[in-house]
Amino acid sequence: MDESSVELVEGAKATERVEKTPEELVAKAIAPVKREFLRPLPLRRSNDVVSDSKSAPSTLVKEKKSKRQLKRERRQEQKSALNLCPEIAKTGNVSACPYNENCRFSHDLEAYKAQKPADLEGNCPFTSADGACPYGLACRFSGTHKDGVAAGSLNLQKKNSEINGLNKDVQKLLWKNKKRFPKADAKLKLLGLLGKANSKIKACDDKEEGDLTVSNGNHVINDNSCGEKAIDSDNKVEGSPKLPEEDDEPRPMKKAKSAVDEEYCTGKEDNDASVKDEDLGKSHAQIEPKSTTDNIFTESDGSLKLHPREKKLIDFREKLYLAPLTTVGNLPFRRVCKMLGADVTCGEMAMCTNLLQGQASEWALLRRHSEEHLFGVQICGAYPDTVARTVELIDQECEVDFIDINMGCPIDIVVNKGAGSALLMKPMRMKNIVEAASGIVDRPITIKVRTGFLEGRNRVDSLIADIGQWGASAVTIHGRSRQQRYSKLADWEYIYQCARKAPDSLQVQGNGDIFSYLDWNKHKSACPELSTCMIARGALVKPWIFTEIKEQRHWDISSGERLNILKDYVRCGLEHWGSDTKGVETTRHFLLEWLSYTYRYVPVGLLDVIPQQLNWRPPSYFGRDDLETLMASDSAADWIRISEMLLGKVPPGFTFAPKHKSNAYDRAENG
Prior knowledge:
Elements (H helix, E strand, L loop, with lengths): L2 H17 L2 H6 L18 H9 L12 H13 L6 H6 L17 H7 L38 H6 L2 E2 L4 H8 L6 H9 L10 H8 L11 E4 L4 E4 L28 H6 L11 H18 L26 E2 L8 H9 L5 E7 H5 L3 H4 L4 E2 L5 E6 L3 H14 L4 E6 L4 H4 L11 H12 L6 E6 L13 H7 L3 E5 L13 H10 L5 E5 L5 H10 L5 E4 L1 H5 L3 H7 L7 H19 L3 H18 L27 H6 L4 H12 L24
Helix pairs in contact: 9-16, 13-24, 16-18, 21-23, 24-25, 25-27
């Protein structure tokens, strides 16, 4: 095809797009942008289209490296002149480091000053706080320090604003697997999930799982809470596997605690059965001696049972709830949403096994800012013992208002371990997890679920009446199945059905596709039984949705106002991750992750039909000014340009590729 033919084809496509009515565009899930703002489609040869779809620009693709290679590079970087010893950076004195020549970092102060990047524009984010900047010479705003080199304390700076850090002594106990969980173990024993009852699981489990099709024999899972490996036949849930028929799965039944042992050996199906006799014998041999010899808890110990009136309650009604969001829902982003009107915030999903291993990166997800007045953490685990011990640990170490258990995560790596939405196929295990977790803390336990595992086979409505009796204070229902992921539209009619079936003591929250105050009003008026609606991707694309709901208006926000929101995020990011080079680049990375969502927003003044819907694909268009046009770009190179406006030039060799593919649109979602 010659150039003239290509131009004719592209011109015909552009003409066709312009000639479609707004209603026709909406029917195809394309944002109906006013014609005067539409951008001509770029001219591309047919072979260019194929090559573009197969490979991304090499400058934006990050090559994967092995853990050993990354560790070696980190050590080399630590010894480089650019990685100055923090103690020397704070004081400007080469002899200030107590480790001297054994220090892992560079002590060459002159070499550091010669190679240090130029200071960034603006003031140091720590200058307004009491005391000096904790980064001293390493701060990228050191030129604005009043007394030159300052000797502040990072812990002192964060003490007044951020909490929920992991105590070092507790972390060492977790590393050595010596941390004890008396409350969790006692509750598990009371429920028959710890001790002799579990040794009888395998016989019943083999019979129950006889019709389960699995792909690779016995799957070994590292259950950190017991300190060793256990083989779980419930844990084999693939991305799109053959699953046991739902008719074979019994509905959770109320049973007397004294009859737990009898239940396990009567041949009744119990999908919590997952551990081999020999593995259980080994694991509980390590746990039981102390608990039995101490004789701290017994089944008759009434102090373990919390009366419902003793539980702290949270009224979620009418509150604007920012959903826990992986990667982008970090502390700086939550602070921005709080400034814009969010009432309830929740930390990113943390894996129970990682928390029980004392991983610092996982515990960082639980950090809370003093501005977050109503804050919860979300955890994800596959087994009652793992979740119960994590809940007890969080109760001891963190200040949170509620603990949310994720039972709806669709990610393969989570589902394949039997956690997240895989639990929707195991209602008895769901029951055991909620009962174990709610029975050991006085904080509210909430859960987040999807409609079901497979599309068209919803099952939350059959469990909703029992969830409150298990001990949950609230349940959030995302109106999609695990199989749907984020494709198609959320099924709000099913959410309404579940809310009407729920007991009065259980607060039901809806989640899915809320992108304007009209969406919020529609769901609240259609189902008064709903406690509130959780806002997730809508807040990623336009965090000012909370302002719109509170003020009941469509905010035609300008590009300058949007840039100010990004500036607030950068300021919060530098306070959280640091104002040194490492902190600046970490802030840049998470800013770029967020920008991979925000470009999907189409300004109100550019639309023929309002409000914008979350599943609409924005066409290529011009904004009302150059900045608005730049913010509408789906190119990572333009996102980097925006980051450079706020954080200076990127370092040499910088690359970025979004962690999530959420900036792309699924075909099924858009017809």
